[in-house]
Amino acid sequence: MPFETNHAHSVTIACIQYEPKIGEVEANLNAIEERVREAHAKGAQLIVLPELANSGYVFDSAEELASLAQPIPDGLSAQRLIALASEMDIYIVSGLAEVSSGVFYNSAMLCGPEGYIGTYRKMHLWYRENLFFEKGDLGLPVFDTPLGRIGIAICYDGWFPETFRELAIKGAEVICVPTNWVPMPDQDPETEAMSNILHKAAAHSNGLFIACADRVGIERGQPFIGQSLILDATGWPLAGPASRAGEEILYAEITPSDVLSKRRLNEFNDKFGDRRTDVYG
Amino acid sequence: MPFETNHAHSVTIACIQYEPKIGEVEANLNAIEERVREAHAKGAQLIVLPELANSGYVFDSAEELASLAQPIPDGLSAQRLIALASEMDIYIVSGLAEVSSGVFYNSAMLCGPEGYIGTYRKMHLWYRENLFFEKGDLGLPVFDTPLGRIGIAICYDGWFPETFRELAIKGAEVICVPTNWVPMPDQDPETEAMSNILHKAAAHSNGLFIACADRVGIERGQPFIGQSLILDATGWPLAGPASRAGEEILYAEITPSDVLSKRRLNEFNDKFGDRRTDVYG
User: Fold this and answer.
1) With an 8 Å Cβ cutoff, are A276 and B186 in contact?
2) What's the pTM?
């Protein structure tokens, strides 16, 4: 079982809800740096940024994306984040537009004081992302860091319960979710966002901490819904949901190794031990 | 693919939230009959009753359960429900304490105008149920009826995303959930019940109609939380949540075959077509 752990210490996690500007990579990186410095000053050790935080989301064309995407970890955006993480002795998970051998991915990079740690490429592409990106080909990696075992999911990945189940089974304790949530077609905008319901359910049924950093703003006519949140491994919010339209930084203190005790419900029940793998594999 | 369907008609579904009395099978069956007649009079064609609706829940001993459990479909409780369904030309899903060859199961029976249709035996046993019942050995059956393809899950089954995923993949359109939800240890009783969050997420991410009939009352010191609800295949409530403590009948009109269109999100995305079975099987 991969659930042995020695991360029995607390971690201050921050989710930066902000509004990237489409196409303005340099300005976005400056905005990110400013907010990362603020979160670090308030004690954050693990900082989550939105999906495509460096590029914006609503590309007009493949050519536009090609002009914005960069390699990971060698591109300018990745290198600036790596330098920040190293300088501040923190971990950062950020969505980035990635190009690799001429192929484009909607990716997220994890870096820390030790430098580049790893990349996740979004497996489930939403709507017109299918025109620009290839589906992720790196599976669902779990990164073992001194803070805890970190998994990453991006936006529409969260609509698939298997995403969290697979990460939990592989030993993840904390899932960082860079996202650009859009209004669901069937969603009453006044009610709780379905995105939040899905992540509460995932955190609760898997006993995982989940930290979602959404963007805000309206980009080329496409609104984004904010409502970033940080969930306890019981499924209940530790911070947020943030506002629907404003920039904001959420903070919460978590102890990643608590997933073990939070999966054990009583002397009879364990959220993983009770799985009927004889029936559903 | 099992998603061909010809159930393109609407069905009125009712969830009966009521308080069974522990050990009083005859009185419980009378109470059930009265409420089923009321729901039928209001047009219900598919009626869902709580978990262990005939026996109550908090058994003092294995001997007590043995004195209450009955065979399905030949026992008195099953026969009364089958007779009601036949008389009223309706379908009923009810939790029942089942004995089969000396083994006890926390089961649910589906019957209709044509008589007995099938049994589901709870796969995930909660807490002290493990002292009294065997884990279900019938898998997750889907019953093809003239109303639609019906799956069944009972209470703690809903804590496992695989339950709904498996039923959806097998072609289920409507999941009936007889339940006896208890307060979760980490639940603030003033907030929305985690049970409701889990079922909203399951309905949304699988594109399934889900009808949960909970019990109410305090039995031998154990409170139950009510809040029955009927969910659209988008995940949003069509009826409920019902009150936390009062008896109540919820009604909703659904069209089971709508699951097909509700799983199709836009020209690029389909909740099942987008699954990355190459990664998570």
Assistant:
1) no
2) 0.96
